[in-house]
Design goal:
Strand order of the largest sheet: 8-7-9-15-10
Number of helices: 9
Mean pLDDT: 92
CATH topology: Chorismate synthase, AroC fold
Radius of gyration: 23 Å
Helix content: 25-40%
Low-confidence stretches: none
CATH class: Alpha Beta
Largest sheet: 5 strands, antiparallel
Strand content: 15-25%
CATH superfamily: Chorismate synthase AroC
CATH architecture: 4-Layer Sandwich
Structural class: alpha+beta
Number of strands: 17
Length: 397
């Protein structure tokens, strides 16, 4: 059975986006409402641009699903682009003045053209619709073993939400996030974030921020410490940094860990017999500075990931650039864009993290069917709970 993987294809103004996911075990229940809800959330959020009033993203399954369940073959999902005008030169003319901060200049030089159009269409964050579809599909796998992923906006510019996220408050915080048009967790922070976005709009500028994802219910031992390429924190960091406009990623304390002594960084290990039945096997921590990952593996605490999104590169007022036909200074071109897409980015990162957790889950518990996955998962936890009773029988000469 191949490991869980996905591929996306399509341009921002092409006819459609395609998300192809391989390695989903047969029998996984495909929650189409969950997937389409995530698609709608990616289009929402205060500060989005005009395209979100044109598109209504939903997925159409082209293969791999029958009667609401995966059948074990690759799952292809199609997301239509209603604003399809890639070959209409009047509506999508050549772009000769690259936008600073975007892929325009690098792509034009890479593919030896002075027209940035093809680069900007493929590099567009419109592609993240296909990634969200793949991540939401991965959540359908995680549901079978009780793993949940929760994402939200931690800050926009200098306005930060101070609400602490804990597993016990998950339902309450989920409701708060879903009631916020900036996808944050308290009303006061939401007011300040909206004000920063309004200020940017008035100034014909853009705003960035920090988004955060928490994974609840992970068993101990997903990932590996034997090869740097198999470390789960490395895979998550790769997935997050590959999202358009993301310039930083942290696990747990992240950069703050470098400013503290070890005694204030590493999480003490305790044992609570009343939690032995949970995926943590009863091993608890009074803190979670490691963000649920130690040595490249999950440690039973919630996985905590932060991602920093820069302000969007397309400014209504433009920025100094050059014309690639003449190399003379001119202001950059304007393509329809958002003032702030941090809320949407929180949905993209949440689903990117979900996909990596699901991939690690299936690497540890491989099988052709969801029955095998569930059986292997339960057997692993049962065996792990007997570790204190094992006698290794190692003789020391």
């Amino acid at each position: 059975m191949p490991s869980l993987d996905y591929h996306t294809a399509g341009e921002s103004h092409g006819p459609a986006l395609i998300s192809l996911v391989q390695g989903v075990p047969a029998g996984v229940e495909i929650d189409i409402d969950l997937i389409n809800t995530e698609m709608r959330r990616r289009q929402g959020g205060y500060g989005r641009g005009g395209r979100q009033r044109i598109e209504t993203d939903t997925v159409e399954f082209l293969s791999g699903v029958r009667l609401g369940r995966a059948i074990g073959s690759p799952i292809a999902m199609k997301i239509d682009n209603k604003d399809s005008r890639l070959d209409d030169l009047e509506r999508t003319p050549p772009v000769h003045r690259p936008r600073p901060g975007h892929a325009d200049l690098s792509g034009s030089i890479k593919w030896l053209t002075n027209d940035c159009r093809e680069t900007l269409e493929r590099a567009s964050a419109r592609e993240t619709a296909a990634r969200v579809a793949a991540g939401a599909l991965a959540k359908c796998i995680l549901k079978h073993v009780g793993i949940e992923v929760f994402g939200f906006v931690r800050s926009i510019r200098d306005v930060a939400c101070a609400v602490e996220v804990t597993p016990g408050r998950h339902a309450e915080l989920l409701e708060a996030r879903n009631n916020s048009d900036v996808y944050t967790l308290d009303e006061q922070s939401g007011d300040g974030m909206r004000e920063r976005i309004r200020e940017a709009k008035v100034e014909k500028d853009t705003a960035g921020g920090v988004v955060e994802a928490h994974v609840f219910g992970c068993p101990i031992g997903l990932g590996s410490s034997t090869d740097g390429r198999l470390r789960l924190d490395a895979k998550i960091a790769y997935a997050v940094m590959s999202i358009q406009a993301f310039k930083g990623v942290e696990i747990g304390l992240g950069m703050e860990a470098a400013r503290r002594p070890g005694s204030q960084v590493h999480d003490p290990i305790e044992f609570d017999a009343s939690q032995k039945h949970t995926p943590s096997l009863g091993y608890t921590r009074p803190s979670n500075n490691a963000g649920g990952l130690e040595g490249g593996m999950t440690n039973g605490m919630p996985v905590v990931v932060k991602g920093a999104m820069k302000p969007i590169s397309t400014l209504l007022r433009g920025l100094p650039s050059v014309n690639l036909r003449t190399n003379k200074p001119e202001h950059s071109d304007y393509e329809r864009s958002d003032v702030c897409a941090v809320s949407a980015a929180s949905v993209v990162m949440e689903n990117a993290v979900a996909f990596e957790i699901a991939r690690a889950l299936l690497e540890k518990f491989p099988g052709d069917s969801v029955t095998e996955l569930e059986g292997a998962y339960d057997a692993y936890l049962r065996t792990a709970r007997t570790l204190p009773d094992l006698d290794e029988g190692i003789a020391i000469a």
